[in-house]
Amino acid sequence: MNISKEAIWVYLMYLLETGIFIYALLIMFSYLLIMLVSALAVRDYMHKSRFMDFDQIARSPLSPSIALIAPAYNEGLNIVENIRSLMAVQYPYYQVIIVNDGSKDDSMEKAINAFDLVKVPCFVDEKIKTKPIRGIYKSKNKRYKKLLLVDKENGGKADALNVGLNIAEASLVACIDVDCILEQDALLKMVQPFIDADPKKKVIATGGVVRIANSCTIEDGKLVHVEVPKNYWARVQVLEYIRAFLLGRMGWSKMNGLLLISGAFGLFDRQIAIAAGGYNHATVGEDMELVVRMRRFMMERKLPYRVTYIPDPLCWTEAPASFNILKRQRSRWARGTYEVLWEHKKMFLNPKYSVVGLWSYPYWFFFEWLAPFIEFVGLLYFLFLLAFGLLNYKFFLLLLACVYGFAVCYSLMALVFEEYTYHQYKERKQFYKLLWVVVTEPFFYHPLTVYFAIKGNWDKLKGVKSWGEMNRQGLKK
Amino acid sequence: MLEEFCIEIASFSNTYPYKYLLVILLIAVFFLLAISLLAYLMIVRHLRRVRAAARIKQQDFYTKALTSFLMKDLSEHTEEEYGAMVVSQFRQYGKKQKFSRKVLYWSIIKAGKSLSGEAVGRMQLIFNAYKLHEFASEKLRNGNLFEKADAMLVLSKMKQIWILDTVKKYLNHQHPTLRVSAQISYLRLELQHPLDFFFQLKHPLVLWHQIQLMEIFKQMDRRKIPRFDTFLNHDQPTVITFCLKMIHKCNQFYAEETIAELLRHAEPEVRLEAIKTIGAMGFEDQVPRLVEYYTAKRPSLHEQIAILQALQSLDQAGLKDTVQYTLAGGEYPTALLKQVIYSLQHAGVLTDYEPELRTIRHAQVIIDEVKAKVI
């Protein structure tokens, strides 16, 4: 049978078009499905939280102890204020462990002077191997008795967090970025899934919603006024974070398939985190990697467990406000995703890992990691059709309207969720600013995220391993 | 114009029939959805603002009125008169009956949280006079599970004893929030035998429930606090651990023997809590049992540490024996070694020992140093 070359081309084009079309439908369907589950999870949480009296947790002798671990590298500019902010958190039994990861600036001196710290003898149970510790410091001033400063040789964020895990004595550890602003009741809220868990189904990790603090007002380490960022890049990330946390992670948490707890703020069962081997030095996606490994650890031993998420905005962080820093951060995230998925490829479609193996991992693979490539291929195909005059403009415009409509609806749903839960942006002007982002983001921001993701994977192929400089402008104080 | 568009689309649909139909359909759905969501957001935000303003205004009024009623001299009025006064005063806000009743309901609950003694009695009077118990009991009868739980907590706070039978139905309910609300309500209302429901408990007492129950006991008249040792043979390990914590909290010393028996319990959490309770309550007579358990039964690391800590406060001789036994063994997890050194320092054996920063890499060096000083 003779088939002409032209016919093969037409057939291949038809296959590609249909493939991309079906992929787009699947991605939309999966987003909607997760959003529906998220809605149920948020509703349940809101009902339940009415019965949570956080004052009772704050004064109960039964509340579990928590160690706050914050790695610091060259944070000399803000280290004193950042530590003060962490020390102001409300919780009955907690310790703040600042791990200086071999800073080259004056972080150590500043912290030692500000908090009256002295070197103390201490045993470190090196259950996780780390770079050598130079010294452990405690304050002579009783007011800072909760503070412990660890000085160690530089080994990266994962290594610093592992030192914290080794040193902490509390049953739960909260791993946070030192420059984050925690809500006063952040720990009281975060501990709730742990203390409310059935003893037969242990909660091993909990995450909380991270929000963007650019343009917000901060006084004495506390967030006093919430504002939509003035900078467009930061403002888009507000919407992006609401979508990711409220529409995505809440749903995965309900299905017990959550793979990522943000490195900015997460609470972990210390024993399980150590038993699973702690943070992985070899990846830049160490936050996601730890959660996946803890899950594997539990599932391979057939221990019932849960990883949960709560919709409360508990931690405020400064988002990259310039193109270059955003590019570095997003490329790193894409690289991290690839590294984690590759490291745990055994879980892919493996029924042994139940929801994670059959749903979460494939979702991350097909719709998180692969999506930018498919979009990129779609774009190349569009350019090809355009160049050869083969583009069917009507269908193209209809398809564009459809995808755009979906993106707008999805972002509006995120705003509905935000309104229903914590209603952070109260002023009308702020709301309109967010609506403007909803309308413009698919044209200006989304294509960039595709580019960043592809760049991240390209960097991985080139063997890039560093985090890259992440200079920030600083928060409004 | 529209006709042309339709013809164009019809011709186009011949080329891509299913894709075309689907895309058009999706565009229509997304368009309608976007418009609805936008309208919903606008309306919700507007209503929220309006309602919040009204609520704040009413709350202010109710808070002031409640405070003045609580302070009023009641000697010249009967309870009925007092009730009538309250109703007439609050009727000022009776135009939007349901809304204002809801606001008053929550104002009373909020105020009730920080009140005690006679003030609570007066608050109950106001609650009954304004017939808020009817509002709450309606929720208890026909509300969803969370509303039922909420109504139960409110009615029990207002000492509405008549709900006790309903409360009993939910003491072992599948839904944890409803279950614990029923348990709290039972503790508030059943004054003779408040812990009776423990006998029938089929679900574990999670830590959050324990915290809430402990809070109720804290507010209870100390003379009415029941004996917790009655439940130390319960099927649920969490009930036993909770009772052990309460025994310590309420200084129920008569439970010593029963607690010591728990060192033989099958569940490690129960044994650990028993060790901690023995140490915390200073049961010196149980030292031989602790030492025997440490040396003969090969307890877990957590239990070993807990025993050393308990012996630290109970008996120096027992502590030294146990430490020597530990050092004579072959394996020393760092956490245990750390506790051994603290214990020896406490016992006055290692007063001059100031270990520098050490890690597990130096464990053998530390052990040798300690052995040289102790054995």
Briefly say what this structure is.
The complex is a heterodimer of chains A (477) and B (375). Chain A is of the alpha/beta class and 477 residues long.
Q: Please work out how many helical segments of chain B DSSP would assign.
A: 18
Q: What is the strand content of chain A?
A: 15-25%
Tell me the span between the first and last alpha carbons of chain A.
76 Å
Helices and strands of chain A, in order, run as HHEHEHEEEEHEEHHEEEHEHHEHHHHHH
Kindly report the spatial arrangement of strands forming the biggest sheet of chain A.
Answer: 3-5-6-2-1-7-12-9-13-8
Tell how many strands the DSSP assignment of chain A holds. 13
Largest beta-sheet details of chain A: 10 strands, mixed
Low-confidence stretches of chain B: none
Distance between the termini of chain B: 103 Å
In helices, the fraction of residues of chain B equals 55-70%
Overall morphology of chain B: extended
Global geometry of chain A: globular
- CA radius of gyration of chain A: 23 Å
What this model shows, in words?
The complex is a heterodimer of chains A (477) and B (375). By secondary structure, chain A is α/β, with parallel strands linked by helices. Chain A has helices at 5-49, 54-59, 79-87, 107-115, 157-167, 186-190, 192-195, 232-254, 270-275, 286-300, 323-343, 354-369, 371-387, 393-421, 428-444, 446-462, and strands spanning 66-72, 94-101, 117-119, 123-124, 133-139, 147-152, 172-176, 181-182, 202-212, 217-219, 222-225, 265-269, 305-317. In chain A, strands 3-5-6-2-1-7-12-9-13-8 form a ten-stranded mixed beta sheet, with helices on both faces. In chain A, helix 1 packs across helix 8 and helix 8 (232-254) packs across helix 14. The N and C termini of chain A lie far apart (76 Å). Chain B has helices at 2-15, 17-71, 79-90, 97-113, 118-129, 132-142, 145-157, 164-169, 176-189, 207-219, 237-249, 256-261, 268-281, 287-296, 301-314, 316-328, 334-346, 363-374, and one strand at residues 358-359. The longest helix of chain B is centred in the N-terminal third of the chain and has 55 residues, at 17-71. The termini of chain B are far apart. At the A-B interface, helix 1, strand 4, strand 5, helix 7 and helix 14 of A face helix 1, helix 2, helix 7, helix 9 and helix 10 of B. Strand 4 (123-124) of chain A pairs parallel with strand 1 (358-359) of chain B.
